[in-house]
Design goal:
With about 475 residues, the chain is an all-alpha fold. It folds into 2 domains: about 240 residues, no CATH class; about 220 residues, no CATH class. About 80% of the residues lie in helices and about 0% in strands.
Amino acid sequence: MEAIDIRPALIIAQREVRDQFRDWRIIFPIVFLTLFFPFLMNFTARQLLNFVNQYGAGLVGERLIPFLLLITGFFPISVSLVIALESFVGEKERGSIEPLLTSPLADWQLYLGKLLSSTVPPLVGSFLGMSVYISGLLINRIPLPDAETLLQIIVLTITQAVVMVSGAVVVSTQATSVRAANLLASFIIIPMALLIQAEAVVMFWGRDTLSLWWIVFGLLVLAVLLIRIGLAHFQREELLGREIDVLNIRWIWRILWGSFHGGARNVLDWYRNVLGKTLLDLRGSLLAAVLLAVIVIILGAQQADRFLLILPEGDFQQRVRELGFNLPVGGIGSVQQIFFQNVRALVIGLLLGLFSFGVLGTLPLFATLGLLGYFTRIMEINQLPAAQIILSGVVPHGIVEVPAILLSTAAVLRIGFLLATPMKDKTVGEVFLMAIAGWMQVMVGLVVPLLLLAAVIESWITPLMILRLFG
């Protein structure tokens, strides 16, 4: 087995970093903005603390300090992301990449060297800005966040930098011009900015440290996946030969329909050979979805002890009887509403998965089974017949609906797995379209019929089961 030699990648990274720090056009904007922004955040923190203290809202000010530190660390990363965006396509436009590509280096060594060199300037600027910000807090005698919060912010900054740089380098290898790479960067910066807002909610709403660590874990998974995708699809021959990508609708439709149809002669042949093969390929992703489902149910049950909900006292059966008089049983409108609601949730999961290479595609699974675990535990805490409620109100349609959600989630996860699998004879676009076609096969062949059946059961049978058991 050939030994993995990382030294050439480190040599490339060292050379690239040295050249970057020699160019004043790169250093001056990063250093100036990095040093100016912490002073602005210090001024903002001081003014806001004075303002909120006037109204006795010191807690808001205390939680504002770590958030501004997080923003201070994020700002230099977004500014210096242009270095990663032009790492390959920029040198290609300048005509300076041919000697590097003709060197006796493996593709992964060349890619890893560029990735490391593109990560150093953002992290240097980020830590410099955070150091200036913390120094300003000490000078102004503003209390620093606790040690765990500081550690979380540092780890979050590092993982966010790795995710953004990894995505930018992937864009740089696939784009045909620096202009196109800069436009595609919006698909990196906007989701990360939304993530910053989510982190702000966590920081201001109860300082839930465990949730921040879960965000760190998700970013680590996404970073590893992005690095793997970049290594899997980087080919120096394709980089040199690609001149311009033209939007070819016929080619997209041909790849998408060909992958979905699979050359089947009829519906039975499609189910037996095409969909059957897709389901066999889905085994690993389905196992991952099942494991996630078990973990989500356990986590949802644990949240019940942290966010306790005490229900009003009273006869539970009497409440169910009162509900039964207004409980809708049957009806085409009810079936349609339930069916389209479930399909819409899974389509949103697909869209989120496309932006995150499958990672965020698990949110419908998290929302459904997480709430199930949470409310099951809440019913146990309130001494309600949880087993009877689940058996009558969830199991009848859940037997059909949960497998459909698991199949859809597994198909979205498979998109990330396929993109991370090396396919030398196929481009990233072809693999991407093939993965979407696989999701469509699972949706059309199994998930949509199962969701329709689940909607019928939930509309006609589940209410009767509840009334029969408790009424």
